[in-house]
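Sat 14:20. Reprocessing the chain from the morning session after the first attempt stalled halfway. Input below, unchanged.
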Amino acid sequence: MEENFQVRNIFDEEAVDQLAQRLRKVWHEFDAHGFCRSIHPKLKTLTFSERNNLIRDTLWEYLPREYPHALRIILNALPPELPDCDISGFGNFIIMPQNDYVAKYGLEHYDLSIQALYQMTKRFTAEGAIRPFLQKYPRKTLAILSEWAEDENCHVRRLVSEGTRPRLPWAMQLKQFIEDPGPVLDLLETLKTDRVLMVRRSVANNLNDIAKDHPDLVVKTLDRWKRIEDEGTQWLIRHAARTLVKQGNKGILTILGYSPKVDIHVSKIKLGKASLKMGEKLDFAFEVKSTSKQIQTLVIDYIVHHVKANGKRTPKVFKLADKTLEPGQAIKISKAHSFRPITTRRYYPGRHALEIQVNGTSYQKIDFELRVQ
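Finished this time. Tokens:
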């Protein structure tokens, strides 16, 4: 990937041109030149989502207004199905605005649209586009997803899990499932032993979403799944538990084999420097020593208490290490935490804090200063 790559540039002029040519090939009346001319000049100033929406709505302008006719053109212009159970790369991202076209303009054509998303998700995930149908037609759509959970195509099965995630990033929340995740858990029961890692990862991400609102329910579910003699399901359990582990949930720590109570001593944290500028890294180190006569398995995390715009501090837990300590053994751990600007977090200057967490219990905590200059 190029160093200055920006996700929004997935939807560039070349991608728009290729879409126009595919549509023109299956429907000769399509004004490919006008379509591209309506989009190209606007791309430069738009974000990823804005570019996606522009392409979606320009399709509406240049395709026939009769939705069934327009949908046939879109489907006939689709590339071949993805040959592997993999979603890497950006080649088929241009299908995303076409998925969203179905979600926005085809909501009143349920049967046609659902079958279209079934075909489209085999080329590029329709996880965002299925959500308006779950909101408007929950019972009917859940019934179809129950069938798709056993589909032979791995991308269709993944859609069942990813499309029902209550808090899917960059997509509308499904508030009915935030309140009651029961219907989603029913679908995940079918997928929990799926043979494909991509599908199991989606199941784990869905459970991780649910755990943010219903931790006890997820702990109970994973405790039951722990009895399943399937290596893939056991991997799923560990991946689904990551937020609960960071929160120090005693139930999930026990399920994963970590004792909520450990006999250790954590030495004082040593910082590379107590004051750093935006863009620099915070170097820190500490020692963990076992004071037990038994072997202990530890999950070691660190917490950064970020200063927010209002001056208050909020904690964010980061994964550090899994360690097994012999009786009396001591280990030294070091880390460099970056404060390089990223799109998903905004940093504010002020007095932050660093804290160590072992098996859900907090130990040493130390302040440090983050400066703008």
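The two ends are 31 Å apart (CA to CA).
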